[in-house]
Design brief:
single chain; about 425 residues; alpha+beta; Helix Hairpins; BirA Bifunctional Protein, domain 2; 2 domains; 8-stranded mixed sheet; 13 helices; 18 strands; about 40% helix; RNA-binding
Length: about 425
RNA sequence: GGAGAAUUGGCAGAGUGGUCGAAUGCGGCAGUCUUGAAAACUGUUGAGGGUCACACCUCCGGGGGUUCGAAUCCCUCAUUCUCCGCCA
């Protein structure tokens, strides 16, 4: 959520940069400003009314004390009128505030100046590429066939137990999953991130805190009996650690990592591109999150990018990094770098990590602040990234490491799997 | 799930209808003293809205109510603790 004073002061810049998301925010922005003005006017009227009522109450109290009941009763009547007036004003105020926050919830974060304009993923800007795309043997196949061939992932069984998008990993497949999780967590904690194990369901306030609500209402599984949501990413419980928190400046930066399953309804996505592990309702992910001083957040973002790079280099997977264009940028993000692994057998790039700086957009909703040098509370910056999302890394490994003899496990993972080939 | 108790500023903790945005202690910050530090002493120190700045308004777990007036009384929800029940 954008801050109102920021909107007031940066109207043109906001509109110009939101245009990169293909949004014409002119009307919304001026409506925000109008509503805010109306809100403030009403607030001032209400304040004055309440001030009058307060002093009247004091007077009445004094009159009672001195036994002047008659006079007190006269003032009581006046007080009743003020009460009525304040009720009306409160109602107006609530309406304005509600309308204002509803509107603010709908305005996405302002893209960073470096974000290219564009509407689809084709407009994303490739900024880095590394790793060799292997030449596969003649019998190479996509991962869903590999999974069947070696009996390591059973999609049909998942269909039976739950439904499409809930695969069952077995044997070496399950072990490989566990190995990846352990390896990622070790890698992250070695880089200074503190490991957390987080709730897999969150309440409504947390959903709003990180911006999934109301924007992605329909994309989360909702446990209606208790009004809880299954997390679509560890970002939600992880970032909400800091909801309504005032940190000391010396607490910054904070880095945390956690493994969680993620649940996404993925309403509306069907077709060949969602085959196998490419798009699931339940998948595993290890996440990294940072809380940073506003001055350092972009440096921290680069640090996160380097960290994810080092993981992919350990795994020796061919990958590229994209700077997302405005149209592809998430609602809450100011700047996002996507990592994609090349799936040789599918002949396409698969997104495996998304590293973003949210600046104060989440912090404003969360009320995540720190006491700055002047002793004032200032919004912190939040960042997060996947390191990494499991299914597509798994797909990448299965497809890029397939040989006639079987799937060769990347050296970095062997200590975790306890085996070096799936055959 | 049942019964009881509780929820106050960064923390601890007083406050049961008006003079309470709230005693006191700890912590934080600034100063005195000191070569420096510690100790001691002095001052200062919640958040949000509003204003050029004041004024002023709101906030004592959340929401609602009673009252001229609520941290204080009532209702409701959440959370915590104790006891009972159930249970991986």
């Amino acid at each position: 959520m954008l801050q109102i004073p920021f909107i007031r002061d940066n109207k043109e810049r906001i509109i110009a940069n939101l245009a990169k998301r293909n949004i014409d925010a002119t009307e919304m922005i001026s409506e925000v400003i109008n509503l805010d003005e109306a809100r403030r006017t009403t607030q001032a009227q209400l304040d004055n009314t309440l001030a009058e009522a307060n002093s009247l109450s004091k007077e009445i109290g004094n009159l009672y004390k001195s036994g002047e009941t008659q006079k007190a009763n006269i003032l009581k009547e006046k007080s009743g009128q003020l009460k009525e007036l304040s009720k009306e004003l409160t109602e107006t105020l609530n309406e304005k505030s509600e309308a204002l926050s509803q509107l603010l919830y709908k305005i996405p974060n302002v893209p960073n100046d470096s974000v290219p304009a564009g509407s689809t993923e084709d407009d994303n800007e490739e900024i880095f590429r590394a790793g060799d795309i292997p030449t596969l043997y003649d019998g190479a196949v996509p991962h869903w066939e590999i999974a069947k061939k070696y009996d390591i992932i059973d999609f049909e069984l998942g269909n039976k137990i739950t439904g499409a998008g809930f695969p069952v990993y077995k044997g070496k497949g399950a072990r490989l999953q566990r190995a990846l999780i352990a390896y990622f967590l070790d890698k992250n904690t070695a880089a200074g991130y503190t490991e957390y194990q987080l709730p897999l369901m969150v309440n409504e306030a947390s959903g709003y805190g990180t911006g999934q609500l109301p924007d992605k209402e329909g994309q989360m599984y909702h446990v209606t009996a208790d009004n809880l949501y299954l997390i679509p990413t560890a970002e939600v419980p992880g970032t909400n650690i800091f909801r309504d928190v005032v940190l000391n400046e010396s607490d910054l930066p904070i880095g945390i990592t956690g493994y969680t399953p993620c649940f996404r309804r993925e309403a509306g996505s069907y077709g060949a591109h969602v085959r196998g592990l490419n798009r699931l309702h339940q998948f595993d992910k290890v996440e990294i999150l940072r809380v940073e001083h506003p001055e350092n957040s972009y440096k921290a973002l680069d640090g996160m990018v380097d960290h994810v790079k080092s993981i992919l280099e350990d795994l020796k997977l061919p990958y590229r990094i994209l700077r997302l264009c405005g149209g592809d940028l998430g609602f809450t993000s100011a700047l996002t770098f996507d990592f994609e692994v090349f799936s040789t057998a599918q002949d396409r790039w698969l997104e495996i990590s998304s590293v973003s700086n949210f600046e104060t957009f989440q912090a404003n909703r969360l009320k995540l602040r720190f006491k700055n040098k002047e002793g004032k509370n200032e919004l912190a910056h939040t960042l997060n990234g996947s390191s990494l999302a499991l299914p597509r890394v798994l797909a990448g490994i299965l497809e890029n490491y397939q040989t006639e003899k079987g799937i060769v496990i990347p050296d970095a993972l062997v200590p975790y799997t306890g085996f070096s080939i799936i055959d």
